[in-house]
C-alpha cells in the first residue's frame, strides 16, 4: 500500500488534532446508541403498533415479530428535479430486495428538494442554501421514529445530499448507504449551450433559440450532465465510501442501475448489527474520509459549493475543517479530470473514459487518498478502484480501466492536466474567500481594475443592459451572504461577465454570495467572509476603488489610503419594501439570523461542543 503523501498526512493530522474534543463528544453519543438492536424492541407495544400499522402483507408480520432487520428509506423524490424523478420506482425495488435478503424496508419519510436550475435568478434561490438545513431536519424527523436498523438515503443534487448526510449523521449509530440515480444521457453540449447563453445576453439570438438550446441540454430524467454540485456530490459520496463502488454515474432506468439499487438494500442489511458486519455511518465519516472527500473534489475541479457543504457535513460528525485545509491540499493534489466547465466533456464522457474506478486507483497509487478507511463495503478504499457490471442479473465488481480511454478528459497522476487542484484561498484587506481557477485561463487569473459596487445581481444586469460594463472592472456584489438573503447563487452573472471578458476587458467578480457549482471562465472570488451584513470589509468598498486579484498568489486586496480605509463606515443593507413578495423566504428568517459564516459552512446548527461563536 502506497504511503500517504506528506501534505495529505500533515493536513489530516491537524484536522484530527483540531477535532479531538468535538469528535470525542460525537463518538460518545453515537456509541451510547449502539447495542440496542433491534431498536424497535425498545418501543412500547402502542409505539410499535403505530410503527407498522401502515404496512401491508408479510412485511407487517416480520416487523411485528421483531426478527427481521428493517431499513428506513429517506427519499427526495419529486418531479421538479430531473435527477430525482427516477426515485419514484426505488422504494419498491428496495422493499423487494430487502424481503429477498430476509429483511424489510419502510418508506420513512420524504425531504424537500428544490432545483437551483429553476430558481436561478429568482427569489426562490434565497431559500436554496437553507433548504440544506430543512432537508437535514426532515431526515432526522424520518429516522427519529426509532423503527430502523439501517437507512438508505436517496438524493443527488445540490443541497440534498449534504442535507441528507447531515441528518443521517445525527443517527450515526445506523448503517447508512447513499443511493444515486445517475445522469441523463448527453444532449446539447455544455460548451454550445454556454455560447448560446452569451448570444442571448447580447441580443444576438432570441428567447426561442435560448429555450430550445436549454431544452436540448436538459432533456430527460437524470442528473444534469455538467460537473456542478450535483455530480460533485456523487463523486464525494464514492470517495468517502458511502456509495456502492462505481454507482455514481450509471444511467437511470437501466438494468445495471436497478441492480445497484437492489444491491444497496442487500448490502445495508449485511452491515447491520444483525448482519454481522456492523458498520455505522458515524464511523465511516471520520477525519480521513473527510480529507479524502476534499482530495476527490480538488482532483476533478469539483464544485466550490463544497467549501461550504463539506465543512458543514464534517461538523455534523464532530470534525472541524477549514479553508486552509482545502488550500493546503490544492497545492499538491493534481487535476486529473477535465469536465465542463473545466473542459468540454460531460460526466457521461468522464464515466466512459474510465470514470471513478480509474480516478480512485490513480489517487490511491500516488498517495493522495487514505486507503485504510472504513466504507460501506468493508475496510479499505481500494474496492472503489473497481467498477460494477451485470452477470446473470447480479452485480459483480471487477477491475476498472487500467489506462484512460480519453486523455483529453481523464489523465493519470503521472501526467495531470495541472499540478494542483485549482482551488485557492483568497485573503487580504477584504477578508477571506475562495476562487476556483481550474476553468480560468492563466491570462485571466490576475486582475487589477476599479470596482463597480452592486447590492444585487439585478443591479449588475441593469448596468449590463445599459452598456455601462464595457470596460475593465471588478463587479463587487455585496449583501449576498447567508445572514443577508440566504446566500443565493449568482450563476446568471457568468454569461454577462464572460461577454466583457471575451471583448478583451479585465473582468472579475468579488462577492459574499455563491456561484454555481458550474463556476466558469470568469475569475470569481466568492463566499467572502465576514459577509457585508456582519460588517465585513466588502461593505466598505466604493465604486472606483482599485482592486487587486491575484488568484495564483491567493491575494485579494484594495488600493485605498490606509487612513481613509480605516475611517470608512460599512454600507447599510438595502431594505426591501414591505409590499415586496417573499414567496416563502420569510419562513427562513430564523435561519438567516442564526447562520454561521461561510467558512463555518453557513450552517444554522450552532457551534460544536467547546467552540465559541462560529460567525
From TrEMBL:
GO terms for molecular function: phosphogluconate dehydratase activity. Pathway: Carbohydrate metabolism; Entner-Doudoroff pathway. Binds 1 [4Fe-4S] cluster. Its EC number is 4.2.1.12. It catalyses: 6-phospho-D-gluconate = 2-dehydro-3-deoxy-6-phospho-D-gluconate + H2O. Keywords: 4Fe-4S, Carbohydrate metabolism, Gluconate utilization, Iron, Iron-sulfur, Lyase, Metal-binding. Its cofactor is [4Fe-4S] cluster. Residues 69-382 form the Dihydroxy-acid/6-phosphogluconate dehydratase N-terminal domain. Residues 409-602 form the Dihydroxy-acid/6-phosphogluconate dehydratase C-terminal domain. It comes from the Bacteria. Belongs to the IlvD/Edd family. This is Phosphogluconate dehydratase. It comes from Robbsia betulipollinis. The lineage of its organism: Bacteria, Pseudomonadati, Pseudomonadota, Betaproteobacteria, Burkholderiales.
Amino acid at each position: 500500500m502506497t504511503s500517504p503523501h506528506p501534505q495529505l498526512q500533515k493536513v489530516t493530522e491537524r484536522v484530527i488534532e483540531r477535532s479531538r474534543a468535538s469528535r470525542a463528544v460525537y463518538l460518545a453519543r453515537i456509541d451510547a446508541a449502539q447495542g440496542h438492536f433491534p431498536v424497535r424492541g425498545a418501543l412500547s407495544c402502542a409505539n410499535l403498533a403505530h410503527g407498522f400499522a401502515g404496512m401491508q402483507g408479510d412485511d407487517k408480520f416480520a416487523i411485528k415479530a421483531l426478527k427481521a432487520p428493517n431499513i428506513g428509506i429517506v427519499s427526495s423524490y419529486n418531479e421538479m428535479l430531473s435527477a430525482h424523478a427516477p426515485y419514484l420506482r426505488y422504494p419498491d425495488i428496495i422493499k423487494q430486495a430487502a424481503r429477498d435478503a430476509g429483511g424489510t424496508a419502510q418508506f420513512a419519510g420524504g425531504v424537500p428538494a428544490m432545483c437551483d436550475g429553476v430558481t436561478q435568478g429568482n427569489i426562490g434561490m434565497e431559500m436554496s442554501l437553507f433548504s440544506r438545513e430543512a432537508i437535514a431536519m426532515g431526515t432526522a424527523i424520518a429516522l427519529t421514529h426509532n423503527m430502523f436498523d439501517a437507512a438508505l438515503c436517496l438524493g443527488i443534487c445540490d443541497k440534498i445530499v449534504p442535507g441528507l448526510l447531515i441528518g443521517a449523521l445525527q443517527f450515526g449509530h445506523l448503517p447508512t448507504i447513499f443511493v444515486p440515480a445517475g445522469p441523463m444521457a448527453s444532449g446539447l453540449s455544455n460548451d454550445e449551450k454556454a455560447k448560446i447563453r452569451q448570444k442571448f445576453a447580447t441580443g444576438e439570438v432570441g428567447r426561442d433559440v435560448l429555450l430550445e438550446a436549454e431544452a436540448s441540454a436538459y432533456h430527460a430524467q437524470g442528473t444534469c450532465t455538467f460537473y456542478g454540485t450535483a455530480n460533485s456530490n456523487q463523486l464525494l459520496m464514492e470517495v468517502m465510501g458511502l456509495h456502492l463502488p462505481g454507482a455514481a454515474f450509471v444511467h437511470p432506468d437501466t438494468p445495471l442501475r436497478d441492480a445497484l439499487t437492489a444491491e444497496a438494500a442487500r448490502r445495508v442489511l449485511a452491515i447491520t448489527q444483525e448482519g454481522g458486519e456492523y458498520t455505522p455511518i458515524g464511523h465511516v465519516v471520520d477525519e480521513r474520509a473527510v480529507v479524502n472527500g476534499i482530495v476527490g473534489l480538488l482532483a476533478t475541479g469539483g464544485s466550490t459549493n463544497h467549501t461550504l457543504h463539506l465543512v458543514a457535513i464534517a461538523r455534523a460528525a464532530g470534525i472541524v475543517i477549514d479553508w486552509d485545509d482545502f488550500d493546503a491540499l490544492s497545492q499538491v493534489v493534481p487535476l486529473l479530470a477535465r469536465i465542463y466547465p473545466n473542459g468540454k466533456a460531460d460526466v457521461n464522457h468522464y464515466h466512459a473514459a474510465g470514470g471513478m474506478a480509474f480516478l480512485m486507483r490513480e489517487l490511491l497509487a500516488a498517495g493522495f487518498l487514505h486507503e485504510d478507511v472504513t466504507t460501506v463495503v468493508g475496510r479499505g478504499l481500494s474496492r472503489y478502484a473497481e467498477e460494477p457490471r451485470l452477470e446473470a442479473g447480479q452485480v459483480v465488481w471487477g477491475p476498472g480501466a487500467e489506462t484512460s480511454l480519453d486523455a483529453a478528459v481523464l489523465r493519470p497522476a503521472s501526467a495531470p492536466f495541472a499540478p494542483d487542484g485549482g482551488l485557492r484561498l483568497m485573503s487580504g484587506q477584504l477578508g477571506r474567500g475562495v476562487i476556483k481557477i481550474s476553468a480560468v485561463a492563466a491570462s485571466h487569473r490576475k486582475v487589477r481594475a476599479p470596482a463597480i459596487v452592486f447590492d444585487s445581481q439585478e443591479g449588475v444586469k441593469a448596468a449590463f443592459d445599459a452598456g455601462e460594463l464595457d470596460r475593465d472592472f471588478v463587479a463587487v456584489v455585496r449583501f449576498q451572504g447567508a445572514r443577508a438573503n440566504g446566500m443565493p447563487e449568482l450563476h446568471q452573472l457568468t454569461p454577462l461577465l464572460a461577454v466583457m471578458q471575451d471583448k478583451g476587458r479585465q473582468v472579475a467578480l468579488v462577492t459574499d454570495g455563491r456561484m454555481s457549482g458550474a463556476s466558469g471562465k470568469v475569475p470569481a472570488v466568492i463566499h467572502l467572509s465576514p459577509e457585508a451584513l456582519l460588517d465585513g470589509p466588502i461593505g466598505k468598498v466604493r465604486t472606483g476603488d482599485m482592486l487587486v486579484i491575484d488568484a495564483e498568489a491567493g491575494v485579494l486586496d484594495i488600493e485605498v489610503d490606509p487612513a481613509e480605509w480605516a475611517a470608512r463606515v460599512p454600507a447599510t443593507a438595502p431594505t426591501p419594501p414591505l409590499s415586496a413578495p417573499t414567496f416563502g423566504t420569510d419562513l427562513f428568517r430564523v435561519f438567516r439570523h442564526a447562520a454561521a459564516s461561510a467558512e463555518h459552512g453557513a450552517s444554522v446548527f450552532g457551534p460544536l461542543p467547546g467552540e465559541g461563536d462560529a460567525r
